[in-house]
Amino acid sequence: AMIRMEAWEKMGGIPEIVSEDMAFSLTIRSMGYHGLFLKDIICQEACPADYRELRRRSEKWLKGMSEFIIKFFPKYLGNKNIYWFEKVDILLVSFVYIFPLPYVFLFIVCLIAFLPQHIAEITEPYYFALISDRIKAIEISVILLMILISGFFLAYQFISGHYNSKTLWKIVKYLKYQAYYSFSNFIKNTIDIVLFILFKKVDFIVTADSAILSEPKFFIFLKKRLSFILQYLRRFMLQHRL
């Protein structure tokens, strides 16, 4: 990013927060400044060396965004220099990183509220028959609410990042990758968020610097073992014409 010296001096430097880009943009916008996106800039940022480093960077993003939402964002809610739709946009972008939480909430609600009722269906069938319609209505309402929340975030992400993709195949492909990268890691992501809420600690991790790290000895040993087993199975199948 390129910042005007006048804005930099007025700002007083970068905010001391992990999500410093979001914090700086929000603060400088509250002072009346506007940003401009340039399309002819090429980013050459180094990518994480492997999946482990990608998860470490994802952990930084999750905790950083949680820190930003809890500690930094609320004090700018009443700022008149920031339009309401800009506040909503920043909030939605932040919540994208904590996207799995609605599903955790749904799991907790089902576990605490609905599971005992279904146990009662077996142990106390007469009592359950009296309240079954009400329970089913509550279950359907909660599930529809979670689907609505999830659909809203999915639609927002798709429109903001893929507004030129109008074909059905691209939409299906997007939903497939979204489900893989967001939902498959919801347990790890939820743990990261809960740890931040409990301990209020966020580490600034530069994963690109970790590319020079050697692979752990355990994984090297594991890959050699798997390679040996696969070679043995291949020879066995060739010898017995399987």
UniProtKB/TrEMBL annotation:
Keywords: Glycosyltransferase, Membrane, Transferase, Transmembrane, Transmembrane helix. It is a multi-pass membrane protein. It is found in: Membrane. The chain crosses the membrane at residues 90-116, 137-159, 179-199. GO terms for cellular component: plasma membrane. One of its GO terms (molecular function) is hexosyltransferase activity. InterPro entries: Glyco_trans_2-like, Glycosyltr_2/OpgH_subfam, Nucleotide-diphossugar_trans. It holds the Pfam family Glyco_trans_2_3. Residues 1-139 form the Glycosyltransferase 2-like domain. SUPFAM superfamilies: Nucleotide-diphospho-sugar transferases (SSF53448). PANTHER family: CELLULOSE SYNTHASE CATALYTIC SUBUNIT A [UDP-FORMING]. This is Glycosyltransferase 2-like domain-containing protein.
